[in-house]
Input
Amino acid sequence: MRETLDFLLHDWLDVATLLQRPRFADHSRETFAQVLDSCERIAREKFAPFNRLSDTEEPQVVQGPDGERVHLPRATHEALAAYAASGMLAAAQDCELGGMQLPCVIEMAANAFFSKASVAMGGYAMLTAGNASLLLAHGTPAQREVFARNELTGRWFGTMCLSEPQAGSSLSDIATRAVADGSDFEVDPLGPRYRLRGNKMWISGGEHEITENIVHLVLAKIPGPDGRTVAGAKGISLFVVPKQMVDDQGRLTGERNDVALAGLNHKLGYRGTSNTLLNFGEGRFPVRGGTGAIGYRVGAPGEGLRCMFHMMNEARIAVGLGAVMLGYAGYEASLGYARQRPQGRPVTDGGKDAAAPQVPIIEHADVRRMLLAQKAYVEGGLALALYCARLVDEQATGEAPAAAEAGLLLELLTPIAKSWPSEWCLEANSLAIQVLGGYGYTRDYPVEQYWRDNRLNMIHEGTHGIQALDLLGRKVVMKGGAGLALLAARVNATIQRAGQQPGLAEHGVALAAALQKLGAATKSAWATGVPAEALANATPYLQAFGHVVLAWVWLDVALAAQRGLDVALAASGEAPLQAGKRAAMCYFYAYELPRIAAWLDVVARREALPREMRDEWF
Amino acid sequence: MRETLDFLLHDWLDVATLLQRPRFADHSRETFAQVLDSCERIAREKFAPFNRLSDTEEPQVVQGPDGERVHLPRATHEALAAYAASGMLAAAQDCELGGMQLPCVIEMAANAFFSKASVAMGGYAMLTAGNASLLLAHGTPAQREVFARNELTGRWFGTMCLSEPQAGSSLSDIATRAVADGSDFEVDPLGPRYRLRGNKMWISGGEHEITENIVHLVLAKIPGPDGRTVAGAKGISLFVVPKQMVDDQGRLTGERNDVALAGLNHKLGYRGTSNTLLNFGEGRFPVRGGTGAIGYRVGAPGEGLRCMFHMMNEARIAVGLGAVMLGYAGYEASLGYARQRPQGRPVTDGGKDAAAPQVPIIEHADVRRMLLAQKAYVEGGLALALYCARLVDEQATGEAPAAAEAGLLLELLTPIAKSWPSEWCLEANSLAIQVLGGYGYTRDYPVEQYWRDNRLNMIHEGTHGIQALDLLGRKVVMKGGAGLALLAARVNATIQRAGQQPGLAEHGVALAAALQKLGAATKSAWATGVPAEALANATPYLQAFGHVVLAWVWLDVALAAQRGLDVALAASGEAPLQAGKRAAMCYFYAYELPRIAAWLDVVARREALPREMRDEWF
Output
């Protein structure tokens, strides 16, 4: 994987160009490599060997002196200590905050090693880094200093508390309430002080003993004087709610805040990440003589969702990249197995010779097909995630028009970066099981765990259906379709370059046809202007859109590979890495891209069946 | 599900016509219904409530006085006792053997309830019934009397011991040996007596204490005088090897045979079925003063695979039906959830009204799409399995030309009946998880277990790749393509009937085009006559073939539903069950059938990539 990562970062994305930007001026290709080396090593030594353990010894509730605690294996503590010590929690932050001021694309590439080694153990760190970033963007100076900085060093970990038992995908229906705490609530050094009451569901890392404190970021509604709250997203505000109370110097005061563990969710996978139901302010741990958990508002009232979703693009790319890396882990495991497992004999014209020795199963065409599919899914997914991370960097540090363009393209591509790997790298994991056969179905091999872990990614951080509505209902129509037009321009530029390469021109033609079909379907979907009609087939649209984007990414990657192939050819040598990229691209165009026709058909004719199906017919 | 089952059996397959056949003359529509009622009740009371328990309390090895034993929950013992008491182990056997002489189609329909309630607990019974059937077909009178009859009553259970650690899909490479036991080996009342030595892997039900004895059917090779064995399938013979030795009256002699538990496989799913590695004749339990486990040959030497595969069509249909019923269980669970879970609001022209109450998620088009897909997969899969079971009955009890035709069609359809539900009802289980969202990912709901259980079905009883080679390499070319021609004739008959129905004619046209495309791709695949070229894309071919078969099945089912719809219309009433069948058919034609183009493209042009991909390019 490292070779592919380096190829994508340097030969394809040319990340060295970022070094010319002031923000990254202290870096070099060498410092980038050192970060990757270091993360690869920590992941290999501290995470990968314990990934199965984190699954079998799943988080357990134990009774402590101050309520229930969650017990995790020692290895999880040690792995996360090593992660914190590496400085990666602050990888992209300013140097003056103790950060490394790395580009997002390098940060994501480095974190990919942890997702591959143990996505569940890595979860605590990803959440903490995201939590701290949010506070740095929207918190008061004291909130940044007290909460964010202690998260960046790994002294405290963080969570995101959005969902509630009765409100999963529909955040506007959350019922947690926040009321001003005392008449002096506005002059607390840690920010406007409130009392929160409510239940939060699916909170990853919501309870553990890895760190001395946990910093919860909580969405809640502030009722008006009449006790009523504003309906919809506008009624939602954001609060920072520490598990242990702290003073304005970041010292624990010894008071426990009223945040109580109400239960652990027992999951199909991702078991190493504790996932909790938390009760805020139920009176279990009365604090400072009042009722309700104490929280400090972040940002203005009613701005909670906006603040929370500030980091959404990066969070969704990270989820997509996590899905990719699970797929990658399965791909490598099944490739290794296929190379050493003897079974059966090749098909020949004269049938099979039962007396001949068995061959490694990688010699069977169907096994190679399954490995090729995995390669196309996971390397393509990795390329897409890195491309999007590179857009984050461009948006943050590029020149004005390029930065705006990057931001627009990022908005459009984020639902794909999140959803596509969640679906297809899960399929890669299933193929990895299939390559291993009965062994793949046992817990003696890692592939079944990857498959279980990966199933979450189509659900959390916005389900497939939510991503689809976001794409077709919002992103492709925003600004008069400017995002889609921009993507089309980029795709066409790739097609043009491919047209000048004898071996790639035909793929450019196929991509042009696919792009045309996608554009036409988008228009047809919205032809009546009725959202219910357009959006009834948003998910097939998302699937087709994703496959077109990946076909584009693969053709662009193949163009970068072509340079290496040409050099090797001129020297009468070989370039197996580049040849592999070209083969994976060919696989995608032969086996995958043609799927879009079936998906786009129903979109284009606004197939009414899902709307017209009646309950009693099921 | 019962309503759909009755509709398919009576309104579609018209199973009452079987009552005119001598073998089933003592039955009636009422006796068929009684069997279904009774199985439905036992499955509901004794299996379903303990399905999760059988997963969480997976089989454990405990030390017993005579070696390791496998402990199972008490509920598994009780469920299987109830199953045996129902007489279902001998459901299809002759009355004189204590059987019910039921048609295969009714036996399979009745067993479907157990697969739906707990596929893993039901596994022991399915294996035992298959084992007994095989002995009845190929055993000596004494083997039938001693072994098969005690299995039919549930006094003993049975296994199938085929695979070995070094030989999974490639049975010709098994290394277990059988040598004649003494000079009197041919005159043992239980059949020619041999000593077996070797290791058998993936043996379901290989050790347990549900019954006092376990009857293993074991494949092994008999070496010649030079110590060498015949290569390939022709060298394989079949043996019955009891765990506890018995006399010719079926009494336990008190001697333990040398069959030792070498370990349990810890699986992703199907955990309630113990799955074992067994050592035969390693000397752990020396028996009768010699070395090697004692086994009695069944059938002639070298005929082992032929005997074992005698029941293969039925076993494969049963695996497919098991996959269907897991899908069905998930469909019903997610449908129930979708009807009661409030979340979000419908999309309207004016956007969403956040103040309006939330609606049950079944009102969202995307949720209905996911439920429709599940319905199309699981009801279509059920229809296919029952159709194939009906072919088994036709082959066994029909008039000469019809029986031969049924046999031919059954040969062709078996790989589809096994593989299609394994793939698409697994997808149904994934959609069920998606409908439940985060809850679906937890062990508080059953859908994640169904998904785990179902993943096995693409692997055991012949992997997807093996089914694909069987279909394209053998079944469609056998007898000059007679099977495919017969299928085409049946499909065309359905198309013709659909052509006379205003609402169905267009689907008939689509099916005709699909059939034509399938036929053309079959010809192209074999155009060069080179097996390696034809078979490199056997799996996409299998997928496309399966979708065409299901489109045919659905159109034929819709024709049966049309009669009910016409009757209801004439009476100004409604026929929701039939309307649902029509909707599922429409779903299949709109969303599923168009997928075949992408699969058949690579088949038709004999896409060479899987053959040409080089190891070092991965």
Remarks:
- Chain A touches chain B through 99 residues (CB under 8 Å).
- The two ends of chain A are 46 Å apart (CA to CA).
